[in-house]
Amino acid sequence: MYTLVLLRHGQSTWNLENRFTGWTDVDLTPQGAQEAEEGAKLLRDGGYDFDICYTSVLKRAVRTLDIALDVMDRMWLPVVKHWRLNERHYGALQGLNKSEMREKYGEEQVFAWRRSYDTPPPALEPDDERYPGHDRRYADLTDEELPRCESLKNTVARAVPYWEKVISPVVQSGQRVLISAHGNSLRALVKYLDKMGDDEISQLNIPTGVPLIYELDADLKPKKSFYLGDPDEIAARAKAVANQAKQ
Ligand code: DG2
């Protein structure tokens, strides 16, 4: 049996300001850094250890991983950063306030943008400064790979191949893997691992800074998955994510 740990970054400045973030490279808030620290303490005190870590190329996930590795005294571990673990690209919604968008477009539309499987947000124009083609960290991506917006389905289509080709062989080689990523890039992986239907995944909200443990069989089928920590606190944090547009 293999153990895999998924960790959504701690609260970011734009989570706090309630703004659609996507590929915008914002940092953690002090509370977010504390959440990362607390999540890592739960891992350390629970006897979890790792051989290799994966994260996105966005600093809120990288910073969360750094904090976690420091707490676990594992800063020497190899860390692989890849854009395929980035947050879902929120297109022209990036930077806009979730509650203001609900007031303007209604609850149903905002829910569809945030949680439906295949409704993409409005797309960016390539001359928009938020288009990732202007950022040199994405210089190796083809035009087809550079998103102007992404639905969760699009995120699954670019994150799951990275899991299948890169991470899953490492897990099957016996290495213990920690992935620090984002609300929606992790929902994409969870949907795939748990074979969740398109409707079922719309109800899943992943809380910030809480380790999600997967126990996998030899074929990487989940035998069990659970969050580490106080169940009431975890439920409250997941609810806060779900209700972000209602604040
Ligand atoms: C959030 C998720 O991403 O937002 O892009 O706004 O996990 O990187 O903070 P994260 C964003 P929702 O899909 O929950 O609205």
UniProtKB/TrEMBL annotation:
Its EC number is 5.4.2.11. It catalyses: (2R)-2-phosphoglycerate = (2R)-3-phosphoglycerate. InterPro entries: His_Pase_superF_clade-1 (IPR013078), His_PPase_superfam (IPR029033), PG/BPGM_mutase_AS (IPR001345), Phosphogly_mut1 (IPR005952). One of its GO terms (biological process) is gluconeogenesis. The keyword Acetylation does not apply. The record marks H182 as: Transition state stabilizer. It comes from the Bacteria. One of its GO terms (molecular function) is phosphoglycerate mutase activity. Substrate binds at residues 8-15, 21-22, 60, 87-90, 98, 114-115, 183-184. Pathway: Carbohydrate degradation; glycolysis; pyruvate from D-glyceraldehyde 3-phosphate: step 3/5. The active site is at H9, E87. The keyword Isomerase applies. It is an enzyme of class 5 (isomerase). Keywords: Gluconeogenesis, Glycolysis, Isomerase. Catalyzes the interconversion of 2-phosphoglycerate and 3-phosphoglycerate. Belongs to the phosphoglycerate mutase family. BPG-dependent PGAM subfamily. NCBIfam families: pgm_1, PRK14115.1. This is 2,3-bisphosphoglycerate-dependent phosphoglycerate mutase. It comes from Oceanidesulfovibrio marinus. The gene is gpmA.
